Amino acid sequence: MNNEVKLEKKLSPLNVWSLALGCIIGWGAFVMPGNTFLAKAGPLGTAIAMAIAALIMIVIAFNYNYMINKYPVAGGEFTFTQQAFGQTHAFICSWFLGLSYLAIVPLNATALALIGRNLMDNVFQIGFHYNVAGYDIYLGEIILAVVALVLFAWLSIRGVKFTGVFQTGLVFALVGGVVIITVAALFSDQASFENLSPAFYPGNSSFAGILAVVAVAPWAFVGFDTIPQAAEEFKFSAKKTKVIMVLSILFGAAVYVLLNTVTAAVVPEGYESWAAYIDDLPNLSGLLSLPTFHAGYQLLGTVGVVFLGIAVLGAILSGIIGFYMATSRLLYSMSKEKVLPAWFGKLHGKYKTPAHAILFIMAIALIAPFFGRTALGWIVDMSSIGAAIGYGYTSLAAFKFAKKENHKPIMFTGIIGMIMSVAFMVLLLVPIPMFNCSLGKESYICLVIWIVIGIVFYFRARKARKQD
Predict the structure, then answer these.
(1) The domain 13-467: what is its CATH number?
(2) pLDDT single digits (tens) 222-243
């Protein structure tokens, strides 16, 4: 632990809201209407599911707010779990949560290649290429991801104030692009409320479709829980985090619903409904294979694609910055408590950021572009478990402390948060054909490997602490 240098209190409420929303919304928000939301629940079903998911997340956010006010320090879930249940549980929570955060950094970096493939005529598919798990990897795309990871690691080290301002700018670009496309849909002849029929996907029962979308909530809303990671750098009262978290969740849900609804409202020529279009997606290529971007093209032409491109670029880059920040603060906190080596807790002498932790994240993330998004996807799918575990431990900690203080509202939200976290884990771990949202075989293998590595790491760390 570095006793001479401390984290600086530089983050404003707007910066923290931008941190959360930038982490919630990524590339997936722009492609899931075509490959997940409409295909499972339809436009109305998705809207209902997102409203339910947002409500669940808001209940869990109340637990986070309660714990942040008790422990307004870097580390978030690690600190909460340690104070409530001790070092072992804190390690379990952080081991899975850390992977959940860390995996999303390279996921966003490799998503830049998807912009090149789908919106810029494969401009980065240059140089030698090879195939991993069915995914073609090009030298140009590797270089793009590497440059992004190195650049944003450097920016993250340069100071939390600079990072916060830059993150805010990216999130405004994200929200602005979505708002422009939504307004265009309201006034364009290309979009129609009549096109939103059928309200649910014809091949599924409405109930099953809604639950299938609700089941992705831990992945869809992971990001609001990054707020407590930066609690030590707030330049405002921790009491404000309740409003900030709720607003980030509501804005996130609104972005998902708006993009999904606009996509369904704009049906390409030759299709009788959005359902027929979605069913035909496996046979399509180019812009037609990306329904949200094709909707933007039909509404505003090339300008519409540019606005959506700016929005998705803002989403991707803000995700890289946000998860660099969240993951590095988690590692920093674990180092302070001697769960990780002291090296991770070293702060930059000038910029007062956990530079070593950021460099470690960068080094790990730089491996991913060489293996492609298919292999990375296995880890990311598995890491959704980490988010659910973080929600569960925080809710359980909130319940424990609230019970001591006879704080009945938080006792209630704590119980609800625990129940929902267990439900999310069951949906992810137990194959239920009706929902089709459980982990794939490869993700199960990655999960087992990560657990084994964690067990080895835990006992080595415990042995080292005893020797100290």
Answers:
(1) 1.20.1740.10
(2) 889 889 988 999 999 989 999 9
